[in-house]
């Protein structure tokens, strides 16, 4: 028995109404969904750390999520793993006519345009009535907010709802920043400040899109850099038998500046 078949058998046993695991039997599509998101993020984390032993384990955990959904769906006579595999295989062939067909694109831009046309056609089949169709269909609500903002912006840009150049994006960021600053000065309510802060973040994501930068990845990198530098501060203070809360803000700022200089000279 190959290991994919073995995994399917194990999942069947776990969900067996008589001899299965009580926890596994209680699960539903909705209850498993948060675990799927967590496992996907752990896959990304392993990749970013370059830990390929861990990546193998995390990919196994993610594969389990797919097998879990397939088992529950099969129990309800909805679909099974074979149909899942067929669906993605058909989609890959359909979206790559230059590989599996006789299409020939002049460049990557033409290929990307054809890809978007095919995706739009697929969306239209889900919403056959024109009045129910939107260019924003299928932008998943569960995406991380930065990623979803970037995808929404990309979709509307396809139909011409976009700045003519990057300077308009930068001007919008400055406008939103000024509006937020005014609200902070005048003491606006928290709800209005939150709304304006959201507008500012949305505008910054748009600049990332214009630059061809993944905003979610950029913020993860910034988080990683911040964590590395703060841990370095803690390490330097530990050598002096101190902790961050033993220091003034000015002392912590000085340590931060030193660590930044050290990083630049490496």
Write up what this structure looks like.
By secondary structure, this protein is mostly helical. The protein contains twelve helices and no strands. It has helices at residues 3-14, 22-26, 29-49, 52-75, 81-95, 97-100, 108-126, 145-158, 166-186, 190-210, 215-239, 249-264. Helix 9 packs antiparallel against helix 10 (190-210). The longest helix has 25 residues, at 215-239. It starts with a helix and ends with a helix. 5% of the residues are buried. The mean pLDDT is 92.
Short characterization:
This protein has 266 residues and is mostly helical. Helix content is 74%, strand content 0%.
Supply Rg: 25 Å
The number of strands is 0
CATH topology type of one domain = Helix Hairpins
- Mean residue pLDDT: 92
Q: Give the proportion of residues in helices.
A: over 70%
Instruction: Supply the CATH superfamily name of one domain.
Output: MazG-like
Give the end-to-end Cα distance, rounded to a whole number of Å: 52 Å
Largest sheet: none
The fraction of residues assigned to DSSP E strands is under 5%
CATH hierarchy, class of one domain: Mainly Alpha
Label the overall shape. Answer: globular
Based on secondary structure, the structural category is mainly alpha
Q: What is the correct CATH architecture of one domain? A: Orthogonal Bundle
Order of helices and strands: HHHHHHHHHHHH
């Amino acid at each position: 028995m190959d290991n994919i078949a073995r995994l399917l058998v194990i999942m069947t046993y776990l969900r067996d109404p008589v001899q299965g695991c009580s926890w596994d039997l209680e699960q539903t599509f909705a209850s498993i969904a948060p675990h799927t998101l967590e496992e996907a993020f752990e896959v990304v984390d392993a990749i970013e750390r370059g830990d390929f032993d861990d990546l193998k384990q995390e990919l196994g955990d993610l594969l389990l999520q797919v097998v879990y959904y397939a088992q529950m769906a099969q129990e309800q006579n909805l679909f099974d793993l074979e149909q899942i595999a067929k669906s993605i295989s058909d989609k890959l062939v359909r979206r790559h006519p230059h590989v599996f067909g006789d299409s020939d694109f002049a460049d990557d831009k033409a290929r990307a345009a054809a890809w978007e046309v095919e995706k739009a056609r697929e969306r239209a089949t889900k919403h056959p009535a024109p009045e129910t169709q939107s260019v924003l269909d299928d932008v998943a609500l569960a995406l991380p907010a930065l990623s979803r903002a970037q995808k929404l912006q990309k979709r509307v840009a396809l139909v011409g709802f976009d700045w003519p150049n990057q300077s308009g994006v930068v001007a919008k960021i400055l406008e939103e920043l000024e509006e937020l600053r005014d609200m902070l000065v005048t003491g606006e309510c928290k709800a209005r400040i939150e709304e304006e802060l959201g507008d500012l973040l949305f505008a910054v994501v748009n600049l990332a899109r214009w630059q061809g930068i993944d905003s979610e990845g950029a913020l993860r990198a910034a988080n990683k850099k911040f964590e590395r530098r703060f841990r370095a501060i803690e390490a330097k203070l530990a050598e002096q038998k101190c902790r961050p809360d033993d220091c003034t803000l000015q002392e912590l700022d000085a340590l931060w500046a030193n660590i930044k200089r050290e990083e630049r000279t490496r």
